[in-house]
Structures are given as C-alpha cells and as structure tokens.
Amino acid sequence: MKFTGTLLLTAVMAATVCAQRPRAIEKTVPTDATKAAPPAAPQTMKAKYEGGVFGFNNTMEGTLSFDDTNQRLLFRKNQKDIFFIPYKAVNSAFADTQKRRPTAATVAQHVPFYGWPLGFIKTKVRYLTLQYSDPDTNVSGVTSFRLDNKDMVDSAVFTLASKAGLVPRGEIYIRKRDDAEAKKTTP
Predict the structure, then answer these.
(1) What's the sign of the alpha-carbon dihedral 66, 69, 72, 76?
(2) Residue among 161, 164, 153 at smallest CA distance from 127
(3) Alpha carbon distances (Å) from 56 to 11, 12, 53, 80
C-alpha cells in the first residue's frame, strides 16, 4: 500500500513537472516595413493654423495644399496664399495628439453641484506638426496645423514625408544629414 501510494505520488508529480516546462510562443512584432502605408492625402484639405511661422502670430482657418509644381506646402485663406514652407525646408514631421477640454465644458463645470462632472470631458485634437529650417531666409521654427481626424493627419504626414524626402524614425519622419554636412558642423 505504501509502495503504491509513493508510486502514484511520483507519477502525479512527474506529470505536473512536465506541465510546467516553458513553451515556445511565436510572437510577430510589426516592423516599419510591415506596417501598411496610409492612403495618400488629398491635394487640398481643411486646416487650422495654430502658429509657428514668423510673422503670422494669429490662428486662422484655411486650407493646406501640396503644391508639387513649386515643391512647397501652401496655406491659403479665402483663396489667397498666406504662406508656404518649401519641401526642402522641412526637417521633421509628425502626427501629434493632445487632449483638450472644450470651452463649453470649462464654463459648465462652474455650475454649482451639477457642473462638476463636466470638468472631466475632454476631446482629442489632432495636429500635423512640422519642424522646418528655410535655407533661403535662414528662418527656422516649429509649426502645427490642426486637421479633422487621425486618418487625415496620418496620410498628410506620410504624403509630406514622401514628397520632402524624409525617412521614418519610429513614429516621426526626419531628414537625415549628409556625412559631409555633418562633418562641417562637428568640431
């Protein structure tokens, strides 16, 4: 009896040990090459300029256009050209998302007793953000354009990066410097 109990206990422990061995798991990590490229952005899209270009301090609504003939990104308001950024001046581009509280929620949260939950309301705002350095004017800066939705921002960033010759680095697109240019700036 004692021998049978020991044998049974040994068999159960052996089965348990076999069940505890590490298992191989196939894990596929998406790389930049396997990600599907977003569709091309429309030639013209509604945008709100948020600031960043020298001489244009106020926010304004208008359209953002890819002017391939002149190799530039053009911002227009009321069918009038306001400013442009040459493709060759764009050093980096990325899609930015920020959470903002709408003005109505900010005002309503101050209503006694009933307004406090309205302070928790936030919306996501999507931006196309560009860092540029114009070699013709020696002006550089960071500017952003508010676009309608995430898909529009992603396609605009991808299209601009393709036209400006930028390469992906994680979630952003950058312009790589030439080795000769890098040696000039390094002491």
Answers:
(1) negative
(2) 153
(3) 80, 78, 6, 14
Alpha-carbon distance of 129 to 122, in angstroms, equals 21
List CB contacts of 29: < 8 A, sequence separation 6 or more. Answer: none
Q: How many CB atoms lie within 10 A of CB 84?
A: 18
Give the CA angle between residues 122, 116, 121 to the nearest 5°: 10
pLDDT, one tens digit per residue, over 157-170 is: 899 888 888 898 88
Report whether 135 contacts 89 (CB < 8 A): yes
pLDDT in tens, 75-87: 999 989 888 888 8
- Within 10 Å of residue 34's Cβ, how many Cβ atoms? 8
